Amino acid sequence: MKNTGDQQLVKRINRSLILRLLRKPAALQTGLSRAQLAKASGLTKSTVSLLVLDLLQEGWLMEGDLSNEASRGRPSTPLRMDTTRKALIGVEVAVDSVRVVGVSLIGSVLCTRNEPLTNASPSDACKQVAKMTAGVHKDLLKRGMQLHGVGVGVPGAFDTATGRLSFAPNLGWRDIDFVPLITKAFARTGMPAVPVFVQNEADTSALSEYEFANNNANDSLIFVTCGVGVGAGIVLNDRLFTGVQGMAGEIGHSILQIGGAQCSCGRRGCAETFFGERVLSKMDDPSMGGKYLGLVLHNLWTTFNPGTLVVGGSSCVRYPSMVDVASKALAAYANSAGITPAPKVRTASYGILAAAVGAAALVLHQEQLFFK
Amino acid sequence: MKNTGDQQLVKRINRSLILRLLRKPAALQTGLSRAQLAKASGLTKSTVSLLVLDLLQEGWLMEGDLSNEASRGRPSTPLRMDTTRKALIGVEVAVDSVRVVGVSLIGSVLCTRNEPLTNASPSDACKQVAKMTAGVHKDLLKRGMQLHGVGVGVPGAFDTATGRLSFAPNLGWRDIDFVPLITKAFARTGMPAVPVFVQNEADTSALSEYEFANNNANDSLIFVTCGVGVGAGIVLNDRLFTGVQGMAGEIGHSILQIGGAQCSCGRRGCAETFFGERVLSKMDDPSMGGKYLGLVLHNLWTTFNPGTLVVGGSSCVRYPSMVDVASKALAAYANSAGITPAPKVRTASYGILAAAVGAAALVLHQEQLFFK
User: Fold this and answer.
1) Tens digits of per-residue pLDDT, A50-99?
2) Tag placement on chain B: N or C end, fewer CB within 10 Å?
3) Complex ipTM more than 0.90, yes or no
4) Residues A114 and A174 grouped into a single domain
5) Which residues 281-340 of A are in CB contact (within 8 Å) with B?
6) Quick check: B303 and A10 CB within 8 A?
């Protein structure tokens, strides 16, 4: 019944479980002892000790200060996520700008770079991204930190099955074999050959919350990003959900009105024609776009019954009153039905950096297994 | 690193994997040999042989005819799902009727009972369900089959976290501790104490397709049921997705028009006000409700990017032209955008029995693990 494959899988699951437990908000504060990890994971103490030894050596964990724990009469060494040795880099390729962040394993932003996108051709964009990323990598090296992986958020549909960026309308990109392109650009700068992950920027935004700011493995989370494009990143059952072709969450093109205004996608009456940034900028009172954002949030609620709804993106930063209008509309719908209160809507913890920080979170998300 | 819990989990995963492989459409036709199962599962031949021995003894599998395989020069015994020993019962408690079906492990309908719901109080409804179910159980015994489990589909939100039926508006049920109620009613009829599973009827409908008619573990599937109520059953990453309170898929109450017609839920402009059965029955041309069903299908497409969209429920049986109108509307939206063709919309394989057959499928779905 047993074979090496089983053992490797079980080890990987157990490592993920320990890291997941230590990344929960409470554990970030106080740490957990080996005994507490054993109790919370259901693993034996000897299994936990062996795994922790590896994780300490590799730079994932650090041993905390004894004093706090000792004062409670139980001298045991608390383990914590190590925020000083391994670092992640997250990149957001936006329609008109590039943001690169260096973050710790628990999502603390260590350094950032932000430049206008100088040329939107895929190869030129990758060159610019690589140059900026190499700069952030140097900043991390100065801190004595080792780069563990790079995540890239892109404004289009990324198909994880084929590894191709199928469509990024606002950049004019179509069916780009993006991973080799960006990996080669990184290599040319002399950066170390670390794992590189790519995903849609609404999806990475959702991971900024899920992995670094919410981190509740029993929860589902939807992040609605409002900018030139409108989209949703969806985390269900502890995993990013992207659909069969990577196009799930394209709620900017859900239709709110049959025969409505012409949308850039060719359809009429899409959500983007009601509160896309280009439409909002022409409105006398852009906050009224929130009426339609509220409708979209309501329909996401009835469809997904999510634990958490987060809104972000440049429009929410620029027009914060739009979010208030949307929240009130959602609460009014919930009130009319009177069954359960509407889920709380909160704004992005990382503000305008959500997509870039979330791209860094993507590295952890893709490397870690977690079976509930 | 190893302990009994790990071994049990690995065994359960491997059993599920073998059953899943043998339930794929191609395997239902020709069966798979132990060597083919080993190759497809990645398990060793000795592991497969041990697991198959258990599954044969328990009545899950049967050994097929040698002749076909032998004619290809490779004498090996094909294994198949056993359709003669174990049976499942599925129940649909609808708003005004009760349907009970006995089905084989591969979803062949063996016997059915259908009665109007005589009294909608939870305890009376459970008594009627138990009496009908005991009748179907007798039919199965006459066939020499052993009951493995019972699934029940209900027209409301079932919260798997608490095991309670939180809300079934059209029956007037609210916060019912349904599982003990129905289990006791079954026991009083003298039925054997088999596992009982409960779920929303749109969810069970989705499982009738996913477990018995589609059965593609790499796929996601959405089943939109149109009757007095409108709802969706959602299968993602090989699992039914029901949301944090079991209310996911309540798309009948997604809002299609701000300030639209009053809905029974208290909100205005919900999907049910456009193509709920009570509204359709008053329309000169009910097929035109398909225009709005098409809009809902489109928005599910952009939101989930599902592999398969299925429509069913009593309205689709009564007004088949509504489905044509909806399919054409969806195709027209996809055509306007021109990125990818719309997913094919098909009608329920089990017609009006979808929710009941799917309730039987729920038993297999809940008992089987499958990690991709």
Assistant:
1) 999 999 999 999 998 765 544 555 568 999 999 999 999 999 999 899 99
2) C
3) no
4) yes
5) 291, 295, 298-300, 302-307, 333, 336-340
6) no
